[in-house]
Specification:
about 300 residues, alpha+beta, Thrombin, subunit H, seven-stranded antiparallel beta sheet, disordered N terminus, hydrolase, protease, signal
Length: about 300
């Protein structure tokens, strides 16, 4: 995993490694060397549990982090955004991402042609701590070896620069739990409604989930990089992490609002009465741009 403040040093080490897809952990740099192992403001305009719908044409750019069963979102022809914990939860290097997958239950899809892209490098937010359970700054950028080919299912999202206001309708997408025991083989979408962070905290407290919330977010949610969103019988669940929370404007442009975070709302159940927790894109525009612009300067 490559941190921006050590980018040049780690890139040099990565170039010397045998595999072009090596992921380098800063605290294990020497051992790994030896082993050679998008902007607009939010338009005024709400996942996927029980009351969700399969994705259809002109819908979500379907992306998954291979083997991690996490989501990601295309933001340029070489980069995707995902949740950092998806990367660190793997017990092996992340080698590829799959774009355009709509249905894992079928090898003969009529409405998509999934493509795997090899991973060149991963850049994690410098303030994300993989050794901690804390999930602030839970964002990472994935760079592909080859340029991404766009189509009606795979395309770059625009990036919001302002957080959505409470009651804004947004959409979440993923392959997460759809009931207590089953994960969806088909990419699902559901409308959600943004909930203010103060109200969101109170909901968790009233449902006696504040202790679980504090395990991941010890300073709770106010003034942090978290967006809450919910709707009756809808939320983001296991398998959705890293996937998009988005909205479309009147001109048909798709804006990435958030990333599905490490929530506690429906862990193991598939249903939720608690708001889902998402990493705010607007809070991380400087990080995203620093990665995109630095990459442009190296090409």
């Amino acid at each position: 995993i490559i941190f921006p403040d050590k980018l040049l040093e780690l890139r040099a080490a990565a170039a010397a490694a045998a595999s072009r897809n090596t992921i380098i952990f800063p605290d294990q740099l020497e051992a790994l060397r030896a082993a050679a192992a998008a902007a607009k403001t939010v338009p005024t305009v709400d996942r996927p549990v029980d009351d969700s719908s399969p994705v259809t044409e002109n819908s979500t750019a379907a992306v998954m982090v291979t083997d991690a069963f996490c989501g990601a979102t295309v933001v340029s022809d070489r980069f995707l955004v995902t949740a950092a914990h998806c990367i660190f939860d793997l017990n092996h290097p992340l080698n590829a991402v799959r774009l355009g997958e709509l249905d894992f239950s079928s090898d003969n899809e009529n409405n998509s042609a999934p493509v795997d892209y090899d991973v060149q490098e991963i850049i994690v937010h410098p303030q994300y701590d993989p050794e901690s359970r804390v999930r602030y700054n839970d964002i990472a950028m994935i760079k592909t070896v080859e340029k991404i080919t766009y189509n009606e299912f795979v395309f770059p999202y625009c990036l919001v620069r302002e957080r959505p206001k409470p009651k804004t309708l947004v959409t979440g997408a993923g392959f997460g739990l759809i009931n207590a025991t089953h994960q969806s083989p088909i990419l699902q979408e559901a409308e959600l409604k943004v909930v203010g962070t103060a109200e969101c905290e109170n909901i968790y407290k009233n449902e006696d989930y504040e202790p679980q919330l504090r395990l991941l977010y010890p300073n709770l949610l106010e003034s942090q990089d978290i967006i809450c969103a919910s709707f009756p019988n809808r939320s983001a669940c296991q398998g959705d992490s890293g996937g998009p929370l988005f909205l479309d404007d009147d001109e048909g442009r798709r804006f990435l609002v958030g990333i599905v975070g490490a929530g506690v709302s429906c862990r193991g159940s598939g249903v939720s009465r608690l708001p889902g927790l998402f990493i705010s894109i607007a809070d991380h525009i400087p990080f995203i741009n620093s990665v995109l612009f630095e990459d442009l300067g190296t090409e």
